[in-house]
Amino acid sequence: MNATPRARPTAHPDPNAAPAPSPAAYGPRDHPIVLGLRQNLPQFVLLVAVNALVGGMLGQERTVVPLLGKEVFGLSGYTAGLAFILVFGLAKAATNYLAGTWMDRFGRKPVLVAGWVIALPVPLLLIWAPSWGWVIAANVLLGVSQGMTWSTTVVMKIDLVGPARRGLAMGFNEAAGYAAVAVTALATGYIAQAHGLRPEPFFLGIAYAALGLGLSTLAVRETREHARLEATSHVARPDGRHDHLHGDLTNRQVFIQTSFREPALSAASQAGLVNNLNDGLAWGIFPIIFASAGLSVAKIGILAAVYPAVWGLGQLVTGGLSDRVGRKWMIASGMLLQAFALAVIAAVDSFAVWAAAAALLGAGTAMVYPTLLAAIGDVAHPAWRARAVGAYRLWRDAGFAAGALLAGVVADALGVRAAVWVVAGLTALSGLVVAVRMYETLHRPEAVVSGGDADG
């Protein structure tokens, strides 16, 4: 007896999605491929949790590793001591770029899983390191892993939500990652105060890596088809600004547009580089400044946590806010606020004022970080968006390496506070570049504006 074939369920209308998904727009388990935060909420929440674990892997180093270099391995030169951040930044930057191409070629999920596999040995190397060279090797692996895992969670969330909630998606992604950085930095500070710099603080990293690999392998679903669906309904800007960027571009064209030629993309790339130059400085130099003032490891952990905590939680507000007020001026003003906060840190010598300045630095970074990613998503066509994100993140995370190198050289020559002053000046200049060169990238297609937002 022949049963009547059961019709596939029809997806709920969504202004971000194509009007009528074709039968091909279904996943391997008959999950309808639709765009929107509400429609993809379980996977979105899962990816937020996965990125929190990614951030935790970074957070395990924020308080403890700079102190390991000074107290355990006896490093005296700032440039040598910051080498672990330099190699981390170079490895992560290069992997970011490659990850975009790999995601387009192989899919998002395989890149995510591979990144977690590479992360597994990192905490073990930090625990067992008999020399500073082992710490350097661990940070090469950490940079490769972060480039694969963090880049993938960014692109997968952009894939899922579509254009109407891009800033909000990036706010949640970056908030989860950097809140985890803060919590882990604080926790490892207290653990190190009670039990020493090794091995106990790095037990958290072992747990994060195992859980991240398990969730990514067993529960995360592929999102590449969501990007392909968005490409079929991509709406051009009425001003024609992006007409020359429609369709697929070669890898070389994507890199040139993102890095140099396209005004908004290139302005975002330089701002991202300077922003992470700040973070490299904060990671490698701030604990040393605080320790030289006689603060305990626990208090250093508090200060190391305040900056990424405000940064992380603030993005829950700033990401969605940029969907309403626009990207350009949030980025420019956020860079200027960071410059002011760095100047305060360089000028004072007080725990309370340092804490307030770290909070301001986090607030400025929260204004910038998800908004830059959203701006890249605004301009880049879905067909080459993953590669544009990879190119942007190459420049952004090269800032870690630039910050470590610049801060080390200036600190060795003129002192650690001089290094902070130099970076404060560069940050202010970057904000002015955004104000002059970037145009407003936020554009809501007329159908979205008139039809409301299905994500509510």
Provide a descriptive summary of the structure in words:
The chain has one domain (41-233, 249-443): Growth Hormone, Chain: A (Up-down Bundle), CATH 1.20.1250. The chain is built from 19 helices and no strands. The protein is globular and about 60 Å long. Helix content is 74%, strand content 0%. The termini are far apart. The protein has helices at 41-62, 64-72, 78-81, 83-106, 108-119, 122-128, 132-161, 166-195, 203-218, 224-232, 251-261, 263-284, 286-292, 297-325, 328-347, 351-379, 385-414, 416-437, 446-451. Mean pLDDT is 84; it is low at 1-29 and 446-456. The chain is an all-alpha fold and 456 residues long. α8 packs antiparallel against α16 (351-379). It is found in: Cell membrane. Residues 44-442 form the Major facilitator superfamily (MFS) profile domain. Its main location: membrane.
Shape: globular
Alpha-carbon distance between the termini?
46 Å
What is the H/E order? HHHHHHHHHHHHHHHHHHH
What would the CATH topology be? Growth Hormone, Chain: A
Please outline the helices and strands.
Elements: H1 41-62, H2 64-72, H3 78-81, H4 83-106, H5 108-119, H6 122-128, H7 132-161, H8 166-195, H9 203-218, H10 224-232, H11 251-261, H12 263-284, H13 286-292, H14 297-325, H15 328-347, H16 351-379, H17 385-414, H18 416-437, H19 446-451
Helix pairs in contact: 1-7, 1-8, 1-9, 4-5, 4-7, 4-17, 5-7, 5-9, 6-7, 7-8, 7-10, 8-14, 8-16, 11-12, 11-17, 12-16, 12-17, 12-18, 13-14, 14-16, 15-16, 15-18, 17-18
